[in-house]
Write a structure and sequence with these properties.
With about 350 residues, this protein is α+β, with helices and mostly antiparallel strands. About 15% of the residues lie in helices and about 40% in strands. The chain has four domains: about 35-90, Ubiquitin-like (UB roll) (Roll); about 95-145, Ubiquitin-like (UB roll) (Roll), CATH 3.10.20; about 150-220, Single Sheet (Resuscitation-promoting factor rpfb fold), CATH 2.20.230; about 225-340, RlpA-like domain (Barwin-like endoglucanases).
Amino acid sequence: MENHKVDKTWKFRVLAALAIAVTVSLGFYMYQGNEVNITLQLENEVREITSSANTVDELLAKESIPIEKGAYISLALETELEDNMNIIIKNPKPYTISLDEVEIDVKSIYDTVGEILDDNSIVLGEKDFTYPKSEVQVSPGTKIKLFKVEEVVETLEEVIPFDNVVNKNNKLDIGVTRIVQEGQNGLRKVHVKKELINGELHSTEIVGEEIVAEPISHVVEKGTKDIIVTSRGNTSYRKAITMTATAYDLSFESCGKHPDEPGYGITASGTKARPGVVAVDPKVIPLGTKLYIQSLDGTKDYGFAVAEDTGGAIKGNKIDLFFESAKDVYRFGRRKVKVYIINE
């Protein structure tokens, strides 16, 4: 009876020992089965990790992997780990965006210019561009310059100068001109496209134009008819100039001198002032030229004269006729005359 009890006790002990052994083996087996091999790519670094973590989040925590705000992780943090799983992590890198004199600091997980701009919601216009170019890969800290391109079309008005047309007329005396048609400038509208880069003018291009008003030519007839005036001794005269005539005498009001002053009554040629002496602009009529002065208003001609004097106000097509009295000077006033230059 006692031997039977001993036998049962021994069997119980053997079974207990076997149970403990199986439990330890099974636990070890289960422990070994929970470890997984993970390939972790952080930026350009690749790590091979064996871990007992259950999720991506636990793995990153156990391995003390630095994760910045806005980082890219190829798997969700709650994803359960599996053997031979590949995880990619990209932390955002700093860049500077520059537009004119304004600079802003941004971050992005990408490294090409175009992707960095997209990542920061920076939209370029159709003609806008960057430096470096959009497809260029850049390193952290790079300054990316933006160039905003704007096109505007302006309309400018340009004056079209009229032409001067001179026609010869053999029915008009030599030296006589007549305006047939007054000239008028025309008007042109020019459409100019301007390209502005960051607000500064870069280029201009004429994209169209239109004539608003055509110019009208200024037409003048110039006399070519020879003039022959026969008078004393059948002397002939050719070439005539229409001039503005005034009159002067030896009064202080006319010549600016009193009788007792030196040079009183003496012309610029050194001769004595007298009827038939006229003052001219030597650039138009040389001193010493013999002339015939014809009235154009129906009054009596001044007649034959000699250019011997000058005057401060006598410039261009002006002539000053000498008279002996202030009364005659006043009566003559100012009028148009035709001055014939004698051919000798």
